[in-house]
């Protein structure tokens, strides 16, 4: 098949042919890497139409509301698989057979404990620190424990770093919660599932027996699956960029956690719950809808809209169902759920939201589920970080595995001053 080309006409130059590269699905891309020779850069703040890399991990069709991990639809994975199997899939590119899965399971469980010295690091934080602030610090600090034994050019070393990260994240996350409320740290229990173990480390205390509620365990596992990966989002791109310089993977994941923290990204579920509480009753919804539409008001409907999904977010559909399951099981009648459902109904019929293709995203219902499970609000984004670690690590590994991998180094459109002459401070009069 002849390769297709885009023809670019630049002022005063001969036409340039730019190769069009086809993927297996989604938009084709125009390879503009030869443009530099013509003296031009491309300009796309926020990467609205720029593919920053080639990847075979996750595919999203935002217009159709499709999310595939290694080819499998997210709804099937959430319904039929479990988080560790999804981790294997994302990391290795295919589902494991029984032996492979058992081995993977036991390796991940083997690494759940953390170095006792790292536990002491927590004492350096204020008790009222946001757990995401602690996570940025302690995950970054893992690099101080595993830097010397890590050769990132060695495939086996990269693999062990990936296992360590996936295994230790729930332990570190639960410790950041325990530290904030003054309870003793709970050691991991490797006889439990990944989700069950996390719940135990969060909620068990030494003076009482703790039994994992299977409905909550399954719900937590689904939340982990739904947040496991989402292709080149802000935090994943941050991890890739940090890792492109050959940096330590634990430090790269700490950079991803920092990026995830923002309210436009992983902080949205916390922000969404705050918003629902502020709305508080169904009759105040029109007031908030009007604010969201007002150009002069910075208020946005949290949990609504997405850079890529312009139809529906398939994760939100699963999350909505999980929300009802958890609330039913716990026999909780949460008025915030009524506010959320009515807000969703009204917004989806409103011309502003229809025209701008703003639909509920995964975070719209996840805050209500997590709150019902007894998870404090400040831990919502931390849970997202636990789940997304496998996505970050899979992208980091994929990038380093690619032949000809180079440091990421975007260009810019410079709009600052030029040709200024330096005067000594005594001679300056501004
Ligand atoms: N409420 C009201 N208006 C909105 C909203 C919203 N939630 N989201 C976007 N808009 C409007 C926005 O004002 C803009 O209008 P105009 O074209 O008139 O200027 C238009 O829709 C496009 O918005 P944008 O900010 O240019 O879109 P974006 O792709 O840069 O931003 C987003 C995507 C998710 C940051 C944004 O929709 C948002 O801030 N949503 C609320 C925060 C949220 O729920 N974030 C979680 C995302 S899902 C979890 C994850 O993957 O991290």
Strand content: 5-15%
Structural class: mainly alpha
Shape: globular
The string of secondary-structure elements, in order, is: EEEEEEHHHHHHHHHHHHHHHHH
* Overall pLDDT score: 94
Task: Describe the overall structure.
By secondary structure, the protein is mostly helical. It contains 17 helices and six strands. It has a three-stranded antiparallel sheet, with no helix packed on it. It has a three-stranded antiparallel sheet with strand order 4-5-6. A hairpin with a 4-residue loop joins β4 and β5 (66-69). α5 (131-146) runs antiparallel to α10, α6 packs parallel to α7 and α9 (234-243) packs antiparallel against α10. The longest helix is centred in the middle third of the chain and has 27 residues, at 155-181. The model has no long low-confidence stretch (mean pLDDT 94). Bound molecules: carboxymethyl coenzyme *A. Carboxymethyl coenzyme *A is lined by residues 230, 233, 264-266, 268, 292, 300-307, 356, 358, 361-363.
Q: What distinguishing features does this structure have?
A:
430 residues, 17 helices, 6 strands, 50% helix, binds carboxymethyl coenzyme *A
What's the arrangement of secondary structure elements?
Elements: E1 5-8, E2 16-21, E3 29-30, E4 58-61, E5 66-69, E6 72-73, H1 74-80, H2 83-92, H3 98-110, H4 116-121, H5 131-146, H6 155-181, H7 194-203, H8 214-226, H9 234-243, H10 249-260, H11 268-279, H12 285-293, H13 314-329, H14 335-349, H15 351-355, H16 363-372, H17 380-401
Antiparallel strand pairs: 1-2, 2-3, 4-5, 5-6
């Amino acid at each position: 098949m002849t390769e297709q080309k885009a023809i670019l006409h630049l002022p005063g130059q001969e036409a340039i042919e730019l190769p069009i590269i086809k993927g297996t699905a989604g938009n084709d891309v125009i390879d503009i890497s030869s443009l530099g020779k013509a003296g031009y850069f491309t300009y796309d703040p926020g990467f609205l139409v720029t593919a920053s890399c080639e990847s075979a991990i996750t595919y999203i069709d935002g217009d159709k509301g499709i999310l595939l991990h290694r080819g499998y639809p997210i709804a099937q994975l959430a319904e039929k698989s479990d988080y560790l199997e999804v981790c294997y899939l994302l990391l290795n590119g295919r589902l494991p057979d029984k032996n492979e899965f058992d081995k993977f399971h036991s390796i991940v469980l083997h690494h759940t404990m953390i170095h006792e010295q790292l536990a002491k690091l927590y004492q350096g934080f204020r008790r009222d620190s946001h757990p995401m602030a602690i996570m940025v610090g302690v995950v970054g600090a893992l690099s101080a424990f595993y830097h010397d034994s890590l050769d990132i050019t060695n495939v086996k070393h990269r693999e062990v770093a990936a296992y360590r990260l996936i295994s230790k994240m729930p332990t570190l996350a639960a410790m950041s919660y325990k530290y904030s409320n003054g309870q003793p740290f709970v050691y991991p229990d490797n006889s439990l599932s990944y989700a069950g173990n996390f719940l135990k480390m969060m909620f068990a205390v030494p003076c009482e027996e703790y039994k994992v509620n299977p409905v909550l365990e399954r719900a937590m596992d689904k939340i982990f699956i739904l947040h496991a990966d989402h292709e080149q989002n802000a935090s994943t791109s941050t991890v890739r960029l940090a890792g492109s310089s050959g940096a330590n993977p634990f430090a790269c994941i700490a950079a991803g956690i920092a990026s995830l923290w923002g309210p436009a990204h992983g902080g949205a579920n916390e922000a969404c719950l705050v918003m629902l509480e502020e709305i508080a009753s169904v009759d105040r919804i029109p007031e908030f809808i009007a604010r969201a539409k007002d150009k002069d008001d910075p208020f946005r409907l949290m949990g609504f809209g997405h850079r890529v999904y312009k139809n529906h977010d398939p994760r939100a559909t699963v999350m909505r169902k999980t929300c009802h399951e958890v609330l039913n099981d716990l026999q909780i009648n949460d008025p915030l759920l009524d506010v959320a459902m009515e807000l969703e109904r009204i917004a989806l019929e409103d011309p502003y939201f229809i025209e701008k293709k703003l639909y509920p995203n995964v975070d719209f219902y996840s805050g209500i589920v997590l709150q019902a499970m007894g998870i404090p609000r400040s831990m919502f984004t931390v849970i997202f970080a636990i789940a997304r670690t496998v996505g970050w690590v899979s992208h980091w590994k994929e990038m380093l595995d690619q032949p000809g991998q180079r440091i990421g180094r975007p260009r810019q459109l410079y709009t600052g001053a030029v040709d200024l002459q330096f005067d000594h401070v005594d001679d300056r009069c501004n």
